[in-house]
Amino acid sequence: MGLLRKKEDKELRAVVRGAETPHFPAVTLRILKELRDPDVCFERVAECLQWDAGLVVRVLRTVNSAAYGVSRRIDDVRHAIGFMGRSQLEQIVLAIAVKDSLPSAPARGFRAERFWRAAAFRAALARAFADELHPARNAEAFTTGLLQDVAVPVLAHARPDDYGDVLEAWHGGEPGGLEELERGTFGWSHDRVGALLGRSWELPEPLVAGIELHHADERTDREVLPAVRLVARLRETEDEHGLEALIEHARGDYGLDPDWTRAAVADCREAAVELAGTLAA
To answer: Where are the domains of the chain?
Structure first.
């Protein structure tokens, strides 16, 4: 382990105050290893996935959900691998693995149902934006939209008092974004902690960058997908003012027609309900 990684691990432990960092099951790690090895054939990847029948069912449900938007139904994991390729399939396995690894019990300012419904809405809308703006990377936009606030459940459970105060203030309508309240209180924010978690899980670097920089200034020297920047503007508790601001940013920054964006928002609200249920299954 390099010095930078040791420093990051130490920083993460300090922020979560000794709470156990979530980890992936061994079978998931084996599946990800096979998916990332270009020398392993599709049959071997499919066999590896079938070690976890529940994961196969949830992968197929996610792929076929309205939020993911495939044009034809995918009925088995071999078909999924051939149709989607390793990279897109890895994104879905990662999303499910992260969701399962995070705390789900209620905590001050945190309710899992509300959190994942909002995350599913961001994921579906990020994919819709990506289909218009950068379709070759729509799977990455979907996963980053889903996981951009990945640190919030960890922090809510690791620090129920002081972080719970911040979450309750934010949900209570405190002006500014969650990251502004966090920096004002702690000197760090959930996007940075999310990146530390992502690196501890060995997530792909583009996904880690999207988690870390989804609130960053456009001038950062690390790329964040436009679709991810747009959905990062949404609060967990959705409000019409925030949606109208997002629609205006989509028009002004990326030339997306407001009527198209409103229709996409309506479609993605419905798709998010299905996706959130799929992830919870």
So the answer is: 3-21+105-280, 23-101
d(CA 130, CA 226): 8
120, 67 contact by CB (below 8 A): yes
Residue 220 scores a pLDDT above 60 = no
Question: What mean pLDDT is predicted for residues 62-88?
Answer: 84
Burial of 271: CB neighbours in 10 Å, binned 0-12, 13-18, 19+: buried
Q: Rounded to whole angstroms, how far apart are CA atoms 212 and 190?
A: 8
Q: How far apart are CA 144 and CA 277, in angstroms?
A: 19
Given a cut of 90, is residue 126 above it in pLDDT? Answer: yes
What contacts 182, CB < 8 A, 6 or more positions away? 166, 188, 189, 190
The structural architecture, per CATH, of the domain 3-21+105-280 is Orthogonal Bundle (1.10)
Residue recorded with tokens 């099951």: 25
**Confidence at 238, pLDDT banded by 50, 70, 90:** low
Question: In angstroms, rounded to a whole number, what is the distance separating the alpha carbons of residues 281 and 221?
Answer: 39
Q: What is the pTM of this model?
A: 0.87
Of 153, 143, 102, 97, nearest to 123 by C-alpha is 143
